[in-house]
Structure formats: structure tokens, C-alpha cells
Design brief:
alpha+beta; 2 domains; 4 strands; elongated
Length: 254
């Protein structure tokens, strides 16, 4: 996912750059129409698109205002005398809105791609632990720690069919009481909720915990107890957890 600090950098940077550029062009404003400077501000909007929707929106408004204030008659006032200057300012605003729309979609695609790569890394690591050496409890604990870091989980505990804790994402969670809610094996939704509700709401995994029954060969071999961290859990993240649970069931059976 795109670094939030990077997004916050682009937001004020585009605003400040618009003001500085307008001031820098003041000595040239008597030699040409203000619309001639518009393409320079468009470059700023395109760069701000890298910061996503809000950076592009902020940078869309500021170039138009900077062009009007510094380079359009009457100078140093937010008013416009000429029709061509008005068209140039409006065009800058439209460019910014288009860049914001593109930045929003690109940011969403980038976030989805990053999440998919993270999930694949988690599954690759879980498969490696299945075939790896050492006590199975240690390998299961490693999978749970990786899952907590990659997914919207506060913690997880793996229990055998008798309810005994076999592995935990951290020692403290092994002492948690068994959650009362049994979650759906595929969607990790509580009883009575449909997948349609998940697509319309930002649902997190239960903070008070939920349980996934672990089965292999038609026989239950244990439970995976999960606690959400409050962050929304997408359908992709839920299916990744369900897949990891099936892999751990096969490890537990061994």
C-alpha cells in the first residue's frame, strides 16, 4: 500500500509549489497572456496526482488561484477581467479534477496489488513452514505471527480438538478465553451476515474474537481463534485467512 507519509508530502508540496511558481512568473506577466503559463501549472497537477486524490484536488485549486492572483489582470486580486484568462483558470481546475479521478483509481489499484502481493507472501511462507524442519508448534506459531503482521489481526491462537492451545501469535493471546462466535469458514462473517453486506460495509473482524473450525478429511482437528485489530477486513483478506487456516489444519493433523 502506498506510504501514508508520502501522500501527506504531496498534499502541501503541490500547494506551496503553485504559489512559488506564480510568484516566479510575475516578471514575465507583461510579455504574454496569462493563459500561456497554464501548461506550467498543469505539470504541477500531474506530479501531484502521484499523491492520490486529495493531493490532486488541492493542487487543482491552487494553480488556478495562483494564476489568477499573480498573473491575471487585475493583479493581486482574485478577479478576472479577460475572457481568455477565465478560460485558462477554468481549464486548470478541470485538469486537476481529472488528475484527482485518475489518482484515486490508480491508488486503489496500487493498494489492491500491494495487498495481493502481501497475501501471496504469507501463503508462500505458510507452505514453507509445512515442509520445514523443527517442532510443528514452532512452525505454527511462525505462521500465526506472519498472519498477524500481514492481515488485520490483533492476534490468533490455534487450538487442538480438545481446546488446548497449540500455538499463538504472541504468548499473551494463548491465555484468552475461547471466543463465543463461530465464523463462516470462507468469509469469516458471523452467523446471520451475508457476503453482500461485506461488499457495502467496511467490516472488521470481531475485536472480541471469533472461531474458525479446522477440518481435514471431513474430521475436525482443531480451532483457529482470531481477534481483529479494528481495521476493515476485505473479502480478499478473509479468504487469505481461511486458506491459511486450511494449511494449518493439515499441519495440525500431522
Amino acid at each position: 500500500m502506498r506510504d501514508t507519509n508520502e501522500n501527506w508530502f504531496y498534499l502541501p508540496a503541490g500547494v506551496v509549489a503553485s504559489i512559488v511558481l506564480g510568484m516566479a512568473l510575475v516578471p514575465l506577466r507583461e510579455y504574454t497572456y496569462s493563459g500561456s503559463f497554464a501548461f506550467l501549472f498543469v505539470i504541477l497537477i500531474v506530479v501531484a496526482e502521484l499523491g492520490g486524490r486529495w493531493a490532486a484536488l488541492a493542487t487543482a485549486a491552487c494553480p488556478a488561484l495562483s494564476l489568477d492572483f499573480f498573473l491575471t489582470r487585475p493583479y493581486l486580486r482574485l478577479s478576472i477581467e479577460g475572457k481568455h484568462d477565465l478560460i485558462a483558470s477554468a481549464g486548470l481546475a478541470v485538469c486537476g479534477l481529472v488528475a484527482a479521478a485518475i489518482g484515486s483509481r490508480r491508488g486503489e489499484r496500487s493498494a489492491a496489488l500491494d495487498a495481493a502481493v502481501s497475501d501471496l507472501d504469507l501463503l508462500h511462507g505458510a507452505l514453507a513452514e509445512i515442509a520445514g524442519p523443527g517442532p510443528v508448534e514452532d512452525r505454527l506459531a511462525a505462521v500465526l505471527r506472519d498472519a498477524r503482521e500481514a492481515l488485520p489481526l490483533a492476534g490468533a491462537v490455534l487450538r487442538d480438538a480438545d481446546g488446548k492451545a497449540v500455538a499463538a501469535s504472541s504468548p499473551g493471546f494463548a491465555e484468552h478465553a475461547d471466543p463465543a462466535t463461530v465464523l463462516d469458514r470462507d468469509t469469516l462473517l458471523p452467523p446471520g451476515m451475508s457476503i453482500g453486506e461485506l461488499s457495502h460495509r467496511d467490516l472488521a473482524l470481531p475485536r472480541d474474537g471469533g472461531r474458525l473450525p479446522l477440518e481435514t478429511g471431513g474430521r475436525q482437528v482443531g480451532w483457529l481463534d482470531l481477534w481483529g485489530d479494528g481495521s476493515p477486513a476485505s473479502l480478499q483478506a478473509r479468504r487469505t485467512i481461511a486458506t491459511v487456516a486450511r494449511l494449518m489444519a493439515s499441519m495440525l493433523e500431522r
